[in-house]
Input
Amino acid sequence: MEDIITSLLSKKKETPMDAKELAALAASFRLAMFDVLHDRGTGHWGGASSAAELTTALYFNRMNVKPADPQWEDRDRFILSKGHASMNLYTILANKGFFSTDDLPGFRTLGSHLQGHPSMVKTPGVDMSTGALGHGLSIGIGMSLASRLSGKKNWTYVMSGEGCLNEGQTWEAVMSGAKFRPERLVYMIDYNKVQLDGCCDEIMPLHPLADKFKAFGWNVAPKMYDGHDTQEILDSFAWMDSDDVWPKLVIYNTIKGKGVSFMEGKSAWHGAPIDDKSYASGRPELEADLKNKEAAL
Ligand SMILES: Cc1ncc(C[n+]2csc(CCOP(=O)(O)OP(=O)(O)O)c2C)c(N)n1
Output
């Protein structure tokens, strides 16, 4: 089972993968995350799982990065504004080649470079330290404007969940985005509609989210894409390339805790340790999904 993914990675790490390859890869990453989070008894499964296809597609289809040279100045930037989903980012970066996959089981251990929230000074490939919700978009806009000043054409992707949208700073950034129009800046929302201890509608309703961004003057994608359907994610990438009106917003419909039926859509699995019993009943679902995706290759 693992061999198919290993050979896919060794053949295609440097070239854009297609929708089926991305789906298989994301399923394998989701399973790998589940294993580490269970082993370590800590971390955030819900939001790491909901973003699995999105980050996989970004790094294995779209982003221009050099894992051997993480500080390459012309690289595209990615800011995981929902920094608690760090296990997702670490799994991607390790498999992309920024550091060894052998480091992943050390997640959140003393001395590991893979701490609970991403650190740009510790972990190769992390473009910005995050964890306090709400900063990512402001930072991404700053990075994009810095690229403008230095004449660079790299892209900047900021990903957040709903938590960042509950922070006033995000809306200041939305206003400044409309004013300064940072080129190649894309704000991607992993819209799973569940937060740390409840549904967004209970905590702070965001509806109508796309219309709010339109009213602020952003270039908003024509539809909400399915963030677990890799072909739809590739369609959203095509939309990103379709015009030069900046900044752009894409909202992806996702499911928190995707892949383990009894964890899906439940705030209880935002950051709870994965106990042995839940692991034993949840893992076969993820294995079956991986098998199906591999069979479709
Ligand atoms: C400024 C700030 N306030 C509170 C928290 C605690 N916190 C961590 S995750 C989270 C909820 C995040 O929800 P969402 O962005 O929807 O994350 P996802 O469902 O994608 O995991 C909260 C409130 C924080 N990290 N930063």
